[in-house]
Structure formats: structure tokens, C-alpha cells
Write a structure and sequence with these properties.
The chain has helices at about 1-25, 30-40, 40-50, 50-70, 80-100, 100-110, 115-125, 130-135, 145-150, 155-160, 165-180. By secondary structure, it is mainly α. The protein contains eleven helices and no strands.
Length: about 180
């Protein structure tokens, strides 16, 4: 039972990090604020994470895992690449609209000096790689992070900004992202 409580507290701390970074930015968020939001003592936050940087990276890894899982929900990765891309994109959009703090957190981290470290940490658990591999024959020969920036990052920024597009414009954005990443 103590293990469940420990895991719950660590999860609460990661979620508090996501919410506060989304609201205040990375530099405007302290470990004491995170602990307060999570409902734990600051020392408890440090029991789970030795530093704010480690917590930020682990929160990013978790966010990316959930994003990948949501992106692939109900998706057949053996299907036609264009349909696969659209299904993943729409799933990611829906996931972020349901929790816009995640989109704002991702935007903050993308602009930080920890970006490369966070991406490297998340790479081994990146569920969207299966979709990218299924589409690889159609994708332009660019680094994975550039493909992400052209294909998926627009949906993250759209939601992070609070912009809601009508269905026709959303379809146009998906098509534009597809054209940006394919041959």
C-alpha cells in the first residue's frame, strides 16, 4: 500500500509541474509551488525528483507517452499513410483539447534549453514512432524532430494558443501538415 501512495504522490508532483509550467512558464515555477499544488511537502517532491530539471524531464516523458497513446488510440498503423497521419493528428488534437495545459507545457519545454535532453529521454518510449515508421516511405528525409515540428507541433501550438478552428480550416491544417512532411 505504501508503494501506491508513493507512486500517487510522484504522479501528483508531475501533474503539478505540467500545470504550473503551463500557467507560469518554466522559470516562473518553483519546487515549493509544485509541492503546494501537488498537496505534498517540498521535501517529498525532492524525495521523488532530485531537481526541478529531473522533474521537468520526467513530466515531459510522461506527457509524451500519454500523447502517443492518445494519438494511436483506435488507429491501424498498417493502413494507408495519409489516413494514418490524419487519424493520429485528430487524436492528438482531441487529447490536447481535453487537457490544454499539456499543450502549453509542451510549448514551454520546446523553447527551453532542456529540449534536447527531454526529447532524448522520451525517445525510447515514444509511441508515435510506430506511426512514423508505418509512414516512413512517404515521409521526406528530414530529422525526426523536424518532422514533428512540421507535422504535429502545429496542433500543439493551436491548442496552446486557445485557438479553435472550424472543421473546414482544421481539415486544411491537417492537409497542410501532411504536405509539409511527405514527398
Amino acid at each position: 500500500m505504501a508503494t501506491d501512495v508513493t507512486l500517487d504522490r510522484a504522479a501528483l508532483v508531475r501533474r503539478a509541474m505540467v500545470e504550473l509550467v503551463a500557467e507560469r512558464g518554466i522559470h516562473g515555477t518553483s519546487m515549493s509551488q509544485i509541492a503546494e499544488r501537488a498537496g505534498v511537502a517540498t521535501g517529498t517532491a525532492y524525495v521523488h525528483y532530485e531537481s526541478k530539471e529531473q522533474l521537468l524531464i520526467e513530466a515531459f516523458v510522461e506527457v509524451k507517452m500519454h500523447l502517443g497513446s492518445a494519438g494511436l488510440e483506435g488507429v491501424d498503423t498498417s493502413g494507408e499513410p495519409r489516413a494514418l497521419f490524419e487519424a493520429v493528428w485528430r487524436n492528438v488534437h482531441r487529447h490536447l483539447v481535453d487537457d490544454p495545459a499539456v499543450a502549453r507545457f509542451l510549448v514551454q519545454l520546446e523553447g527551453s534549453p532542456l529540449r534536447e535532453r527531454a526529447h532524448a529521454a522520451a525517445l525510447e518510449n515514444d509511441l508515435l514512432r510506430a506511426a512514423a515508421e508505418a509512414m516512413s516511405a512517404r515521409l521526406v528525409d528530414l530529422p525526426t524532430d523536424v518532422l514533428y515540428d512540421l507535422g504535429i507541433a502545429p496542433v500543439v501550438r493551436l491548442v496552446a494558443s486557445g485557438t479553435t478552428l472550424p472543421p473546414r480550416q482544421l481539415d486544411l491544417l491537417i492537409e497542410s501538415c501532411w504536405r509539409a512532411v511527405t514527398r
